[in-house]
UniProtKB/TrEMBL annotation:
InterPro entries: Aliph_Amidase/BUP, C-N_Hydrolase, C-N_Hydrolase_sf
Domain of life: Bacteria
Organism: Methylopila henanensis
Keyword terms, alphabetized: Hydrolase
UniProt entry tagged with the keyword Hydrolase: yes
TM ranges: none
A Pfam family of this chain: CN_hydrolase
Name listed for the protein in its UniProt record: Nitrilase family protein
UniProt cross-references to PROSITE patterns, sorted A to Z: CN_HYDROLASE (PS50263)
Gene3D superfamilies with a match to the protein in the record: Carbon-nitrogen hydrolase
Ranges where the CN hydrolase domain occurs: 12-257
Tagged with keyword Repeat: no
C-alpha cells in the first residue's frame, strides 16, 4: 500500500449510480446501467458503482426465479457486457449481480476494469428472505489491488457488521464500494434518514477508509427502497450525497486515496495501529 508520505497519486473521481432496476428485465437493466456508466465516464469518473442485484432486480419469490436469472461470473452475458464497457471507457465498475456458480446461487458484486475481469465478492451476510434463495458468501472479504488503488467491496447488510469494514481495512482497502438495496428499518420514524447512512459514516471514520454506497430507488413487488446513496471520506464526513429517496441520480466525488492510506486521527492516533488486540479476547 502506498504510504501517506510516499509519492502522491492523481486524485480519483468516483460515481455512485442510483437507479431503478426492473425486476427480471436483465437486458433492459444492463442497457440502462450502461447508459448511466457512459454518462459518469464522460464526466471524468474512473470508479463507478452500481446497486445490489443491478442486473435482475431484488425481490425474488423463489429459488427457481433466482436460478432462471443468475449468471456465471465472469462468463455470463452481464459480466461480458459490463466488462466490455469498462475496457472501452477505461474505467473500473463495481456492480451487483446474481451469480450462479455450479449449483450455488450468490448475491454477488462483479469488479471489472480496463484490463478485464478483476474479481467477484459474494455477500457474506444475507438479509431476510435472501436466506431462502442465496448461499452465504464463501470468499471472505477480498481486497482487489487495482491500478486505481486498493478496492474492497461489501453488499448492503454487510454494512451492519463492524467486522466487515475492519477486515477490509486490515487487508489494506483504501475505498470500499457498496452496491446496496437499502430498505426501511423496523421502527424507522417517518422522514428519518436511512440507518445505513449513520452506520457507513461510522465505519468510514473508525477504519479510515472511503466508502462509496450505490443504492436503488423505487418500489418492487411492494418493497420500497431508501435511495440516499452517498460517498464518505475517511474521517466519516459525507463528501457526496445523500441522494434523494425516490429519484434516479448519479452522485460524484473527487477523492485523494492517500488520505485513506494515512489512517490518522491525530499526531498520536491511528485507527488501526491503536488497536489493542491483546485485550480484545
Amino acid at each position: 500500500m502506498i504510504q501517506a508520505n510516499g509519492p502522491a497519486r492523481p486524485r480519483l473521481q468516483v460515481s455512485c449510480i442510483q437507479f431503478e432496476p426492473v425486476f427480471g428485465d436483465v437486458d433492459g437493466n444492463v442497457a440502462r446501467s450502461s447508459e448511466l456508466i457512459w454518462d459518469a465516464a464522460r464526466s471524468g469518473s474512473r470508479l463507478i458503482v452500481l446497486p445490489e442485484l443491478a442486473n435482475t432486480g431484488y425481490v425474488f419469490e423463489s429459488a427457481e426465479e433466482v436460478a432462471a436469472l443468475a449468471e456465471e461470473v465472469p462468463a455470463g452475458p452481464t459480466s461480458k457486457a459490463w466488462g466490455a464497457l469498462a475496457r472501452e471507457l477505461g474505467v473500473h465498475i463495481v456492480a451487483g449481480i446474481a451469480e450462479r456458480a455450479g449449483d450455488a446461487l450468490y448475491n454477488s458484486a462483479l469488479v471489472t476494469g480496463p484490463d478485464g475481469y478483476v474479481g467477484v465478492y459474494r455477500k457474506a451476510h444475507l438479509w431476510d428472505r435472501e436466506n431462502l434463495f442465496f448461499r452465504k458468501g464463501d470468499v471472505g472479504f477480498p481486497v482487489f489491488d487495482t491500478a486505481l488503488g486498493k478496492v474492497g467491496v461489501a453488499i448492503c447488510y454487510d454494512g451492519w457488521f463492524p467486522e466487515t469494514f475492519r477486515q477490509l481495512a486490515l487487508g489494506g482497502a483504501e475505498i470500499v464500494c457498496v452496491p446496496t438495496n437499502w430498505v426501511p428499518m423496523p421502527g424507522q420514524p417517518e422522514g428519518e434518514a436511512a440507518m445505513a447512512n449513520t452506520l457507513h459514516r461510522a465505519a468510514a471514520h473508525s477504519n479510515g477508509v472511503f466508502i462509496a454506497c450505490a443504492d436503488r430507488v423505487g418500489v418492487e413487488r411492494g418493497q420500497p427502497f431508501e435511495g440516499q446513496s452517498l460517498i464518505i471520506g475517511p474521517k466519516g464526513w459525507t463528501i457526496a450525497g445523500p441522494a434523494s429517496r425516490d429519484r434516479p441520480e448519479t452522485i460524484t466525488a473527487v477523492i485523494d486515496l492517500d488520505q485513506a492510506a494515512a489512517k490518522q486521527l491525530s499526531a498520536f492516533n491511528s485507527v488501526l495501529s491503536d488497536r489493542r488486540a491483546d485485550v480484545y479476547g
